[in-house]
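Protein 1 of 2
SEQ + STRUCT:
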Amino acid sequence: MYTFTAADGSVIDTIDTNASALAYDNTASGLTAGTVQAALDEVVTALDDVNDAAATVNLIDNNDGSVTLVKADGTQVAVAKADITANGDGTYTFTNNDGSDVTIDTNGLTITELNGVYTFTAADGSVIDTIDTNASALAYDNTASGLTAGQYRQPLTRW
């Protein structure tokens, strides 16, 4: 609150700058508030309502390589997960979706990728392994489909 006084001590004017005294134009915001304080209170209430709804969402670890998201309305969605943990010594433990662990030793390991082919190279330059993720490199079991294709890419290109 600011008070302006004349030299003789009489009050010329008083300006109240408190949020509850300042008018608020709610035309564009969609709020119903008429003062800045009421607008702030309205926004805080709306945020609390959103936070309350979010608090009813629950994530459950099923201890089988999956988690279940339970939404506020009670519906559930199960999702497979994988987890990787740095062991602090250049190795990592990767937990598969089925819960089994694999230790990855990255000491001196270089991994490069070119056109879907991953090459694992040791510190001395020798190639440890390669993994080709292209469909043409993957075997296809055609027992159930009856297709004559022997690779994943072949049945995909037949359609």
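Protein 2 of 2
SEQ + STRUCT:
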Amino acid sequence: MSQPRVRRAVTLMDVLFSLIVAVLFGALTVAVQRGLFRGVSPTLGAMAPTAIALLVAMTITLCSLPFGDAGDTGNLWRFALAGLISPGLSQIVFTHAVRDAGSARVGILIGMAPVLSAVLAITVLEEPFRPGIVVATLMIVVGGIALAVGGERPKDFKLIGLVFGALASVCVAVQAIVTRWASNGTGVSPLFAALAVLGTGTLVLVGYILVTPRRASLREIWPAVVAFLPAGILFGLAYIGFMLAYRFGRVIIVAPLTATQSLWTVAFAILLIGRQREAIGPRIFVSATLVVVGGAIVGAVG
């Protein structure tokens, strides 16, 4: 006779850990914008924080070796495939999006990824349809319209930035689907999975630098590292935390709380960049709230 499945109780650590991950991702977007303010090209701005994040993840993973192992290393290639999409491709359009549209608006667009991922899971993976997904989708559509149409905008705002931001959100959503497939039935350590994702993402971005018409010189690399050091550290900690949260926490708690990263991005943009410079008005708060609630609904019904 099979034993009944025991549901792990939600702990305060689940809540705090998930909120910390959301705060880190929210701060990351603003840190990227501040790095771009220092005159670094978006090309190096895409690669530098990802490479730094890889070093952070490597350090944490090496320190963890006495307490665990890599698990099923034979399936690490699946996570490496996910890394080609994000942060590989996504970081390129994400950095251009932050430059052209500002961190607050791009942070809201990235917050749409959970709903896009759910829609992809239904259409591609044939996961069961849930009415809550329709509600969440409508909310992010309204939030996206509020973000894109009218309202006050930053002085150097370009509409193409919102397009880049939407593409970055799609990349993150697709990567989530690939990561879910990679995790299915495998015992890969979340730390080593994060290494594989960040490693291939860094390789894609290095390749991107090499094939661009204007290649970055060695003299430009160190200023880029300095400018994006905070973003890279935040990225590494956030991604490691994200993988651990989904591995050991309950999804119904982790997903809605990590979805609040959009609100944290807006908060950090006001604090570190300025409400006037980012042109953050009521429309931005409405858009962010709709996107966050939509993401929370996806987590609750998922």
